[in-house]
Sequence to fold (292 residues):
Amino acid sequence: MPVSAGAFDKQIKSGQELISNPAYLKEINQYLMSLEPKEIIEWAIDHLPNLYQTTAFGLSGLTTLDMINKISIDRNQSHLVSLIFLDTLYHFKETLDLAKQCQDTFNVPLKTYRPMNVDTSNEFESEYGKSLWETDEDAYDYLVKVEPARRAYDELQVKSIITGRRRSQKGDRSDIPILEVDSTGLIKLNPLAFWDFQKIWSYIRANEVPYNALVDQGYRSIGDWHSTNAPSFSDDERSGRWAGKEKSECGLHKDYFQMRAVFMASKKKRQQQQLEKENKIAASMAGLAISS
Fold:
């Protein structure tokens, strides 16, 4: 039996409030499981603090975006949940075109964040080298996703986000709840947690929601161009991401503190290697000077 809605009319002030009362969080999830995704989002708009939607404009994110748009229209208000988009500098052109189309179509505030101190892939590669996603995958994930997201959350004072993650996407997502709190205290709402790809696609088509042109070429889950292919298995829509690797997440939904620690250790190692290289060059130059 669903828990009475009246028990969850209280405004949630922070993630810590839920961390300190796991039984209450479990009860909220039981209640939310009795609702349809649009109703879950309505509940979140009314009860979660400083709520944003994070999206790379995949089909799940677009579905959520359209639902928020409909809720906003029903309430005779402008778009109620602003978007955060992480521009990794390696998105497909089709994704960037879609971001602009959605901003115009839904008249939604779009907050775009890029890797620190760079605006182009050339600038990024000048700073960190070419194909960092191959030479140091954890560092790449931290620089293009984890750090920009944390910067966005800090600058915008984000306390809650809506994600497009679903259980049917498998991997680390196979048992996600509708409502959760991560290690930083950030509240994450997964309103489509129990929908599968077919439900998402049916919604997109029925509601004429704009979508990425790459979907018509067989792509289902679309990230950076260098790590995205069409799915290799029809029953696993994310099998086209990071093909051939034991990986199912970009780092954005992993433990922030662990990701930062790994990055800092990698950075220290690179700096040490660079210092050793410079010392060898200096020693070689000194030897040449003495011999001459």
Observations:
- Residues 238-242 have pLDDT under 50 and may be disordered.
